[in-house]
Amino acid sequence: MEHIKEIRPGVAVIIFNEKNHVLLQKRADVGLWGIPSGHVEPGETISNAAVREVFEETGLHIKLLRLIGVYSDPESQIFKYPDGRITHFVTCCFQGEIKGGKISCESPESLEVRFFPTSTLPSNIIKMHPNWLKDALSNKSPYIR
Fold first, then answer.
1. Rounded to 10 degrees, what is the CA torsion of 60, 139, 126, 16?
2. Is the peptide bond before 82 cis (omega within 30 degrees of 0)?
3. Cα 33 to the center of its chain, rounded Å
4. Active-site residue, selected from the candidate residues 41, 97, 106, 112
5. Confidence of residue 1 (pLDDT cuts 50, 70, 90)
6. In a domain, 124, yes or no
7. 96 lies in a domain?
8. What does the alpha-carbon distance between residue 132 and residue 67 come to, in Å, rounded to a whole number?
9. Of 10, 65, 102, 134, which shows the fewest CB atoms inside 10 Å?
10. Does residue 1 sit within a domain?
11. Which domain does 101 fall in, by range?
12. Cβ–Cβ < 8 Å for 23, 133
C-alpha cells in the first residue's frame, strides 16, 4: 500500500428528486462524478459541514433527513488525487432533502451538477460512491463500514 499521509473527516449527502433520481456532481479536482461531498473544517460540526458542502458544490439549501452510514474501510475510503496526495477518509454519509436554492455550477469545485436515474449512473464515478448509494436505497441504515 502506498504511503498515506493524512486521514480526513468527510461528509457526503445523497439527495433524491421526486423521480427518485440521485443528484451527482462532476468534480473539478478529479474530473469524476460523485455524490456531493467534502471535508469537515476545524471547529465545524459534521451536520453543518454536510449542509455547507452541498450548498458550495450545488447551490442548493438542504435539510438532513437521516444518517446512512459511517465509512472508514481502507478498501474503499483511500483516495489518490491526480496530484499524488493519498488520503484516507472517514465519511459520514447522510440523506438530504432540498429546501431551496437552484442547481448551479458556479462553484470552482463543480464542472456539472445534475440528477441521474439510480439504475444508470455514469461510468466515471468515484469508486466508493455507488456503495453509499446502495446503502441509501436499502433503507436499513445506519451502516458502519
1. -30
2. no
3. 10
4. 112
5. low
6. yes
7. yes
8. 11
9. 102
10. no
11. 6-138
12. no
CATH of the domain at 127: 3.90.79.10
What is the pLDDT confidence band of residue 127, given thresholds at 50, 70 and 90? confident
110, three cell numbers: 463543480
Residue 42 burial (CB < 10 Å; 0-12/13-18/19+)?
exposed
Name the CA dihedral angle for 47, 127, 89, 57, rounded to a multiple of 10 degrees.
-40
What global pTM score does this model have? 0.92
Could you please report the per-residue DSSP string of 128-145? THHHHHHHHHHT-PPEE-
Residue 144 placed within a domain:
no
Degrees, nearest 5: CA angle 141-133-140 = 20
**Length of the chain counted residue by residue:** 145
Residue 112 is among the residues annotated as catalytic for this protein? yes
Cβ contact 28:109 at 8 Å: yes
